[in-house]
Write a structure and sequence with these properties.
Elements: E1 3-5, E2 8-11, E3 14-17, E4 27-28, H1 31-38, H2 57-74, H3 82-85, H4 87-99, E5 113-115, E6 123-135, E7 141-151, E8 155-157, H5 159-170, E9 173-174, H6 176-191, E10 196-204, H7 205-208, E11 219-224, H8 231-240
Parallel strand pairs: 6-9
Antiparallel strand pairs: 1-2, 2-3, 3-4, 5-8, 6-7, 7-10, 10-11
Helix pairs in contact: 2-4, 5-6
The chain binds zinc ion.
């Protein structure tokens, strides 16, 4: 049995509040809140259902529009107001076509890799790639920068392609650790090398505007593989991107 704080303890995977909330000793599951606030990452793959793409984008937009309208209605908002009338549709389109479009493999950037023997063995670094994502625990923005390094194995990738790969995996409900690993894995595949490093520095709106309300903190995640596990190479990469870890 794990003591979490003065009045909460773990009981068979559920948490039991003593004398808190409704005061009748009722058992309820607060692990949902805890998981979100601790931003626990589950798997490396984004959890998707088998039938994820049976509905067309247009059908998804129509459904989400209805559901979002229900949320706004439930909050007591007057949807006959001119300013609010179009919001459910706008949100639905934004979810499917913009901020979550990276869920759909059809939107995955097609890699354009070309031979460049001249750069063989050199470290290539692209830093401060703009990153806009969404926390999967709270559906609030995560925003920051991604830094990518690799050692070309005879193949190099167009710089804009790296941005597109970052953007594709960012445009999903995400956990920062998973996003970092997904970008690194895709680059390894596309570049046909293990020598890839990815660092993400990001701010989480769910940390700054709710919960602990910490406005100054930044979350750093890193994935190093191949030669980047070597301390000297790692230091070289971090010096390029101006970070010391
Ligand atoms: Zn969150």
């Amino acid at each position: 049995m794990t003591k979490l704080n003065g009045h909460t303890e773990l009981l068979n995977g559920k948490y039991h509040h003593n004398g808190n909330g409704n005061g009748n000793g009722h058992y309820y599951d607060i692990s949902i809140d805890l998981m979100g606030d601790e931003h626990v990452a589950g798997s490396i793959e984004t959890p998707m259902r088998e039938d994820a793409f049976e509905l067309s984008d247009d059908a998804k937009i129509a459904k989400i529009e209805q559901h979002f309208e229900q949320i706004m209605q439930t909050l007591g908002l007057d949807l006959t107001d001119d300013s609010l009338r179009g919001t459910p549709r706008r949100v639905a389109k934004m979810y499917v076509k913009e901020i979550f479009k990276g869920l759909n493999p059809a939107n995955k950037p097609v890699p354009s890799v070309f031979d460049n023997k001249f750069r063989y063995g050199q470290m290539l670094v692209e830093k401060s790639i703009n990153l806009n994502s969404t926390c999967e625990h709270h559906f609030l923005p995560i925003f920051g920068k991604a830094h990518v390094g690799y050692v070309a194995n005879g193949a190099v990738i167009g710089l804009s392609k790296i941005n597109r790969i970052v953007d594709y995996f960012a445009r999903r409900p995400q956990v920062q650790e998973r996003l970092t690993v997904q970008i690194a894995n895709e680059l390894k595949k596309v570049l046909n090398t293990d020598d890839v490093a990815v660092v993400i520095e990001a701010k989480h709106m769910c940390v700054s505007c709710r919960g602990i309300q910490d406005e100054s903190s930044t979350t750093l995640t890193a994935e190093y593989s191949g030669i980047f596990k070597n301390e000297k190479r790692k230091e070289e990469f971090l010096a390029y991107i101006g970070l010391k870890i």
